[in-house]
Amino acid sequence: MTLRPANGDGDSPRLLVVRNDKLGDFMLAWPALAGLKATDPSPHVSVLVPAYTAPLARQCPWIDEVLIDPGEAGGRPGRQALLHQLREARFDALLTLFSTPRIGWLGWRAGIPLRLAPATKWAQLFYNRRIVQRRSRSEKPEYLYNLELAEALLAELGLAVPARPEPPYWPLPEGVREAQRERISDELGLDSSRPWFFVHPGSGGSAVNLSLERYATLVLGVEARLAKANLPAPAWVLTAGPGEEAAADRLRERLVGDGVTACLLPPRHGLEDFALSLSAADLFIAGSTGPLHIAGCLDRPTAGFYPSRRSSTPLRWQTCNAEARRLAFCPPPGAGERDMDSIDLEAAASRIADHLYHFPTSETTS
Q1: Which terminus of the chain, N or C, has fewer Cβ atoms within 10 Å?
Q2: Do 272 and 295 contact (CB within 8 A), yes or no?
């Protein structure tokens, strides 16, 4: 189906959607937001997010209004100010994708008539519609759990549930990807006719990831397989989050020392600028981090490295790009759930190299 950007129709139902935790979690809410905006009449969708994800929320075409959650750090003054803001907005419904007692209490105190959330933990007492999902079983992707909640909300509002939206969930205006590739080519002197493989070796403090040495082994394995198949060697662009730049530079030095074309993505002007840069990637490789899920939302091909914890499986935290554009790797059965060294990097390198057969350079760099 064709996704429609937010139109801000003031006569539509007013919805408040809350996903106020980490960046990757927020990106996996975009399919749900797209589903809400695809219904007819299209509702007015506001989101409540922390300040650090707000720049990306403002880029989302399925959001009409961004409200900032001051969190626990805001103290009583922050809670009172936010409560006043929600009361003034006169929302028709609250959809909480990740519920906490503070948010449940807030929606109840704000007098929002329809309040829907997953039926988990005692925070559900503040909601008058509860959906049993049992997410801890990790039987579905997180973005699908979110989309099911959005569909349940539409049904409660008496709105027709539309056909489910399809990737990309962050559709960029025509020419944006090409402009990002031209910008990076100018900054780094990269040949834009070559495939560009981005690698994000950091973890953001939350995800288990490969070590720098393991990433070097992976890159060299991919290079060797491409050379054997007479396929063009990619340029490797290393990205980093705040405080991770030095580690990324160590990986760059290691790769350059082995004759690999590798460079660091130059500093960007904020999170939204960094996110748009990822649209230039022909493949994005990372642990299950926020940047991996940004790339998925952009429908760029991804290769994700996951632990095997039940709550962090490749299925549960699957990227929301098209199925054919996803690769996922995790420790084998019997290995420790966080034992990323047990992942077969030879097999991973082979599958990543095969990516060029399925998405040749002429497609990915056009």
Answers
A1: C
A2: no
